[in-house]
Amino acid sequence: MAPKNSAGTSPHRELLHQMLRIRRFEERCVELYSDEKIRGFMHLYIGEEAVAVGICAALAPDDAIVSTYREHGHALVRGVPATVIMAEMYGRVAGCSRGRGGSMHIFDAEHRFYGGNAIVGGGLPLAVGLALADKMQGRSRVTACFFGDGAMAEGEFHECVNLAALWRLPVLFACENNLYAMGTALAKSHAETDLALRAASYDLVAWPVDGMDVLAVAEAAARAAESIRAGSGPHFLELRTYRFRAHSMYDPDRYRTKAEIEQWKKRDPIDSLVARMKAANEISDDDLAVMDKDICVEIDQAIAFAEQAPLEATEDLTRFVYSETSPTGAGHVKSAEAAP
Amino acid sequence: MTERGTTTYREAIREAIREALLRDDRVFLMGEDVGVYGGCFAVSLGLLEEFGPGRVRDTPLSEAGFVGAGIGAALGGMRPIVEIMTVNFSLLALDQIMNNAATLLHMSGGQFNVPLVIRMTTGAGRQLAAQHSHSLEGWYAHIPGLKILAPATLEDARGMLAPALDDPDPVLIFEHGGLYNMSGVPRPGLVDIATAALRRTGDDITLIAYGGTLHKTLAAADELATRGIKADVVDLRVLRPLDDATIMESIGRTHRAVIVDEGWRSGGLSAEISARIMEQAFYQLDAPVQRVCTAEVPIPYARHLEEAAIPQVIGIVAAAREAVAA
């Protein structure tokens, strides 16, 4: 979690605060995209905030995250500063990936955030490998791997859950089932649409979770992470969620009805938590207004940071293709007497 | 009776892996049948018994999964050696090699380097037909972010792995399947992963080869010598980044060149080298650069067809004589 918490110490408040940060950040991103400040592909997480917030709440600072191209939310909640995320989307050298990644490739070594990956399913093997490294080095860490329902049609998914289960690796597979692989509905991609059931066939613990309920996600993630840390191998959560916006800024959203979207918006994860907190007298309208205002200030600062951030020098175009510490190393062939 | 210190290409690679496992706890070997089976080409025979299943890991037939896991493990502080049984199977892992291993450092603005070594068998000549015989190292040499090695000698088989593991970036090592049984006594000394090597010297023509074609090219140079044509033989060793200086230095003396490549001609590594010679040594040339490449067919099974498809000594000699006569 990011250290900032403008609305007190209640755990519910922190969950709310993080979801609202993602929502407000992305709403501003839409405006900036229209203003052509942000270009390229941009995929919004609006509607799915409970998943990132609930999962990340269960992670420790030295755990790792492998994400997808829809990763603004994961990065923000993990603690990657909004300033460097925004600067990245502006393509500036001050961006977390020095302007070489953009919206889809947010990376942050300090927070063990191993990126946005634009290949569906492409991050899964990285998560397996990170977890393998932890296991081989005797570290009790969890690698959380986000991916969508679309990725479950990819071979890499099946290879990876099998490998993780076979080697009992500490991976938390977080499947964000938002019912569409870009524009293809779940039932048109998968013969068996019960994704948790399918994952369970690989002999790992898997169950479905209401991905619109941040408390349900946080509870499931905490349980899964605890079990993974205890050495019981990978876990799979199918987080049933919905994106309120189109797949990307290019998507005319022709494959689903407005009525369906409106129906899901009634289950908005932020509204739901606010209603619950109000009913329990945990938050007032004034508190909420203060929280919202603080978030707007944070985002304004991020935009101001990105606006004034310099561009990478074109002369540095080919930096980071190879490591700058790269030695021209040499191996020694011993004398024949020493050979086998 | 074998000479003292005699080893094979296979044993040289095994000894290099063994030394790496002994030297660094972060190193482990992973791939299909590398453990109990001892490696498809018996390279890793005995390593499971010596180092145990934690460090010599048999994987399922999941190339994308275990190659990608190697990338992830490298990110997590390990120094994996991933074996892919043949270059043809590497295509199942191409997404991971190209979209992750080769891009992560750049895409992350320099934050995440991938210190990974991937070894695989390449090449034709064993009647294994199209899906087990291709030479795709030239494709991999197209990709910025990767380093591509092609050991053709016992010294390189033995000595290239250690600097590859010391390298902070992904290194792919292509072992030609026809070389595993090659034997001899490796000469002691340092082996780098940066330069091409002159394997024979002669001022009449430069023959450029690597991997499995090096030995055919050396045989061709022997034959050319009997006809009074003295050839420089350049062993590329490193296919990316190419050592232009060694190539151009040789052509500066010989003024003629033949490139021998078991890859296909169109859009291949030989085309790249030819273009570089044109760019950097055009006025040194006394004749057009010649190429001896694999015929543009999937490699066929029948022995005579396979032999006709891939570079042979006779073709190298003919190309060299044509260049010298021009």
Characterization of the model:
- The complex is a heterodimer of chains A (340) and B (326).
- Chain A has 340 residues and is of the alpha/beta class.
- Chain A has one domain (11-338): Rossmann fold.
- Chain A has 12 helices and 8 strands.
- In chain A, the strands form 2 sheets. Chain A has a 5-stranded parallel sheet with strand order 1-2-3-7-6, with helices on both faces. In chain A, strands 4-5 form a two-stranded antiparallel sheet.
- In chain A, a hairpin with a 2-residue loop joins β4 and β5 (184-185).
- In chain A, α2 packs parallel to α9.
- Chain A is globular and about 75 Å long.
- Chain A starts with 10 loop residues before the first helix and ends in a 7-residue tail after the last strand.
- Residues 1-8 and 336-340 of chain A have low confidence and may be disordered.
- Chain B is α/β, with parallel strands linked by helices and 326 residues long.
- Chain B has 2 domains: 7-184, Rossmann fold (3-Layer(aba) Sandwich); 197-325, Rossmann fold (3-Layer(aba) Sandwich).
- Helices cover 38% and strands 21% of the residues of chain B.
- Chain B contains 14 helices and 15 strands.
- Chain B has helices at residues 9-23, 47-51, 63-75, 87-90, 94-101, 104-107, 137-140, 154-159, 161-166, 213-226, 244-254, 269-281, 303-309, 313-325; strands at 7-8, 27-31, 56-58, 79-86, 117-122, 147-149, 171-176, 183-184, 189-192, 197-200, 205-209, 231-235, 238-240, 257-264, 290-294.
- Chain B has a 7-stranded mixed sheet, with helices on both faces. Chain B has a 5-stranded mixed sheet with strand order 10-12-11-14-15, with helices on both faces. Chain B has a two-stranded antiparallel sheet with strand order 1-8.
- In chain B, β14 (257-264), α12 (269-281) and β15 (290-294) form a beta-alpha-beta unit.
- In chain B, α3 (63-75) packs parallel to α5 (94-101) and α10 crosses α14 (313-325).
- Chain B is globular, with a radius of gyration of 20 Å.
- The relative contact order of chain B is 0.12.
- The model of chain B has no long low-confidence stretch (mean pLDDT 97).
- Chains A and B meet through α5, α6 and β8 of A and α1, α3, α5, α6 and α8 of B.
